[in-house]
Amino acid sequence: SERTYIMVKPDGVERGLVGEIVKRFEVKGFKMLAIQMFKPSEEHLKEHYKDLAQKPFFPKLVSYMLSAPVVGMVWEGKGVVATGRKMLGETNPAASAAGTIRGDYCIDVGKNLCHGSDSVESAEREISLWFPNGVTNWARGFDSLIYE
Ligand code: GTP
Ligand code: MG
């Protein structure tokens, strides 16, 4: 079933918003398969964001991501890639609706709290990068209360 990689960025970790972000995915009904705090290397972050290497903001993005630990998570569920992105909000918090994580908790694009995979293919690539030893697959008792 579909999986996505969600990451609380350094500002979210420092501001104590990990629990809030985890909570939103839990109460929605998605299933957590992995969670870990990381202090990634510059090379690791450049690999994660390799599609953006030519962007003018890339050096700033990398130094932002190195400024404190991050918390990476794998979440599973029907449509979790697209729905996860909706829950995060737009890339620019100023364009994010109230009720989304970025819409509710941040202001600037360079301090936008969280990351979410942009496609199923990106998700699988990012999950392999951050959790090379795999995740915990488990059967949840109340799936019949979430899915029709
Ligand atoms: P992620 O979930 O973090 O991948 O964000 P996204 O998919 O909504 O946006 P994208 O992948 O295009 O950009 C990755 C990250 O780079 C964004 O989340 C921002 O933190 C940062 N970023 C993107 N555009 C800009 C920009 O114009 N200026 C600055 N300073 N940062 C940017
Ligand atoms: Mg992206």
Q: List the helices and strands in order.
A: EHHEHHEHHEH
Structural class: alpha+beta
| Residue-averaged pLDDT | 98
Q: Radius of gyration, rounded?
A: 15 Å
Distance between the termini: 15 Å
- Percent range for helical residues? 25-40%
Could you explain the architecture of this structure?
The protein is of the alpha+beta class and 148 residues long. The chain has seven helices and four strands. It is 38% helix and 16% strand. The radius of gyration is 15 Å and the shape is globular.
Short description:
This protein has 148 residues and is an alpha+beta fold. The protein has helices spanning 10-14, 18-28, 42-48, 58-65, 80-88, 101-105, 120-130; strands at 3-8, 31-38, 70-76, 114-116. It has a four-stranded antiparallel β-sheet with strand order 2-3-1-4.
Write the layout of secondary structure elements.
Layout: E1 3-8, H1 10-14, H2 18-28, E2 31-38, H3 42-48, H4 58-65, E3 70-76, H5 80-88, H6 101-105, E4 114-116, H7 120-130
Antiparallel strand pairs: 1-3, 1-4, 2-3
Guanosine-5'-triphosphate binds next to helix 4 and strand 4.
